[in-house]
Each structure stands twice: as structure tokens, then as C-alpha cells.
Fold these 2 entries.
Entry 1:
Amino acid sequence: EPEVTQTPSHQVTQMGQEVILRCVPISNHLYFYWYRQILGQKVEFLVSFYNNEISEKSEIFDDQFSVERPDGSNFTLKIRSTKLEDSAMYFCASSPLGGGGTDTQYFGPGTRLTVL
Amino acid sequence: SQQGEEDPQALSIQEGENATMNCSYKTSINNLQWYRQNSGRGLVHLILIRSNEREKHSGRLRVTLDTSKKSSSLLITASRAADTASYFCATGYNQGGKLIFGQGTELSVKP
């Protein structure tokens, strides 16, 4: 069964460094998302992406964050200058909505980002 | 806030018993989805129910939705130790839009 994959599974970085988190959504899906979960807290929406542009973003998704779909398969989240409070599990998700697909969002296994 | 609370926050039961988790929300929704998360792992999609549906079943899972009360419940019948996980409801407000997650219910099923 197709799955959303994410790399790396764990990323450790120094405060102020740039990180890129990578995701490969399910191949025929049209909507892509990033969420994060700070340890012990609920999952929070960051950004959604459709038709090669951001369709919605949260207050968390400030100028330090950017997303890109550089080719037909990858979907990346870049944090330009990491802060301690960016430490969290970052989840990528995709949805087949469009062409008769459903709203179900399928999540990847996550990347645990630790900022020191 | 668009999302309310889930209750209980934690639930401990014996294997074979049924587990019921509740979720409330504050504004009209397009759909509501339930997810399971094993400790430190990813989110596994369980079931989606649309705003015009009242009940859905999938295996040992039964989800109900009461839009008049803005609430949903997830029932897991004949629970197993492997069902031990955190369960989250997430509400969708428009097609392709973001999901708003609740705080989750931590379920522990003792063998």
C-alpha cells in the first residue's frame, strides 16, 4: 500500500542553522501539508500546498519557514534559522482530493527535529 | 478556537472491554477524522466521517457524529493490548483544507 515517506527520521541541528525536511507524498495525491507536534502537545497545522502554491498557512508558518515541491515527487519544508522552540516532530501529509478523491489526509512517520 | 476537547484525556481498560472516546468541536465542519498514534510514532488514519453522515463502521471501530451537539465518539469494541495508543480526532472545515486536532485520548489496554 502506498505510504507517505519522510527523511530524515531524526535531525539534530544547532540554533540558527538551516534545516530542510523532506517528504515524498503518495504519488497520485494533489494536496500536501506540513504539521508539527511539540512533545506532549497536540498536532498543529503549519501549511497546505496545492497546484504548486501555498493554499493556507498558520500563524506559526512565519518568514522563517518555506515549502517547495522541487520536482514531481518531493515536498520539502525549510526552516531558515532554527530556534530552540522549533524542536518538534514534523509530519508531512497528503490527500488525494481532486478527481473524485477523498479528504482523508495520510500522514508520514515524521521527522523529529532537535534544536540545540 | 475551532476545536474543543477530547475526553477522557486518559482511559485504562482490560482487554476485551469496549473503549469510548469523545470529541467536541465549536464550529461547523465538513468532515471529522480519527487517528491513532503509538508512542513517538506517526499518525495512522482510522476513519473519516462527513458532516452529512451520522455513523460509520470499520472493523471493530464505530464512529458517530452529532452535528447538533458538535460532537463525535469513537468506540473500539473488544479491545486488545495492541490498541494501546493515543487517539486523536481532527476536524476539517473545507475540502483540501487543514485539519484541527484535539488533545487526544491516551488509551491503555491491559492484557
Entry 2:
Amino acid sequence: DQQVKQNSPSLSVQEGRISILNCDYTNSMFDYFLWYKKYPAEGPTFLISISSIKDKNEDGRFTVFLNKSAKHLSLHIVPSQPGDSAVYFCAASAKSNYQLIWGAGTKLIIKP
Amino acid sequence: NAGVTQTPKFRVLKTGQSMTLLCAQDMNHEYMYWYRQDPGMGLRLIHYSVGEGTTAKGEVPDGYNVSRLKKQNFLLGLESAAPSQTSVYFCASRGTGNTGELFFGEGSRLTVL
């Protein structure tokens, strides 16, 4: 039973446009959500996070939105740049144990 | 600025052989983790440690053992490798006081024939 789902294995976006990556979760105990970015042959790197007490967190070109009632979060990248081409993982944790549960990832391709 | 270093980066084993993956971090982090990543799946936690001398099982611990004799090192052992353990293995660490930001190594690609 996948508790964190990223239903789009891949996404292709034109350079300069907005990229929107989606993530759904099923466990209502999750209260902290993170996005990681991964380039080939490298480990994932932390991108941005959001606590369940917020519905939006912004860091430069990256914004994460959280809809608790829908158990859905999304990552917006504006404007998209070629260096954003990577696999993006959504992860969630509950304060009780801080163990991260990961989605399967979405491969983002930015077209020039 | 090393961060998290994993060795080896690549390894090919025959079924039944044993090996150890080494993870070293230089950030004085308390928590360390071993994950595996398989195609079409997210990272799955194998074992983790909340401090020197402690270890605990994650989601998929069977077939693996770990040790944390020194704070900076976390070893992952396969006593009798199986083809199902063909995967990319990632080590990660984090300090106390943050709720999820992990620092990852570059990964170790293991193939079991």
C-alpha cells in the first residue's frame, strides 16, 4: 500500500514556463512534507519542505502548496530552467517518528 | 567538503557472496540511514541509527545487517547476497533538530548475479 504517490512518472515542460509536480498521500498522520531533487548518478538533495500548519511555502522559484483536506501537495517551479531537469521525489513524515515515506518520483524534462 | 561518502560505488556479486557497504559522514550527525532504490519505486528504508551504538529496522530489513560502532560511520552488510538485492543503495544522515532534511551520499550500485 503506497502511502505517498506520485502518479506522473514523467513530465515535459518548455523552458520558461511553469512546472507543476503533484503528490498525493493517504496517511492522515503525516505532518511534514519534503521535496527532493535527484540528478543521475547523484544522491537526492533537499529542495523545499512544508509543515502541515501551513498551506504554502516559497523559496525563490520553488513553491510548495499543501491541501490537507485533499491530502495533496504540489511543487511549482517558475520559470522552469534547463538545470531543473531531474527526478523529483515527494516525501512525508509524521512527527512521531520522523521516518520519511517516499513517492516513486517524477522525471521532469525541461525543453529548450 | 565531503558530506556523506559511500564506498564502493559499484560492485558485482555472485549469489551467496557477502559484502559490506561503508557510509561515512563528516557533519557530526546523530542520525544515519540506509535506503535502497529500485526502478519505479521510491526510496525504501532498510535500517537506520539514531546514534552511535544503536540500530533499528526500517521497512525492508530482511537480508541486511548494520553496525554503527563510530558516530561517523554506518555499515550495511549483506551476509548472503541474492539477486533480489540488486539495487542502488543510498546512505543518508541528518542532525537532531531538523525534521526531515537528509544529506545523501552518491549511491552504491550493487548487482547480484
